[in-house]
Design a protein that fits this description.
166 residues, alpha+beta, Aminopeptidase, 7-stranded mixed beta sheet, 7 helices
Amino acid sequence: MGMSVIISVATEEDAEQILKLQYLGYQSEAELYGDWGIEPLTQTLESLRAELAERHVLVARLGDEVVGTVRGRVDESGVARVGRLVVHPRMQRHGLGGRLLEAVERQLQEGCEVRSFELFTGHRSLGNLRLYARHGYQQRDAREVSRRLTLVTLEKPVHAAFAATA
């Protein structure tokens, strides 16, 4: 390929590519849980555009193509909530998910007093659970949503975030 992947802030012009990538990336999750109605597969372009205006959204680009994305926001209690981390299937297992996670953690701390990071994934999403564990996240809670899905909430205190990116 010869090109480097560049991580940057998403723009309104990225919305369609992000939505297509999200749809592609969450196919395996839908299959894993037998649920094709999950929100990442049903989100509208208008809803995504609203998120671009309200949240921190990063993209990973290979040339002009968006090959990864992640979103985050800091709530009023200082918890930085990370979500929708997705990497194009052909780009997985090369460290891009970890790079996006670290980048959004850094960005969420800019200008905000963040006390911890929080994210969630499904209990069968073993690759996701391994990635988050490698980056200092620990299970805080597990909540059964349906017979097929238990959501695992993971968190990481800010001091662990600094250690992981230092």
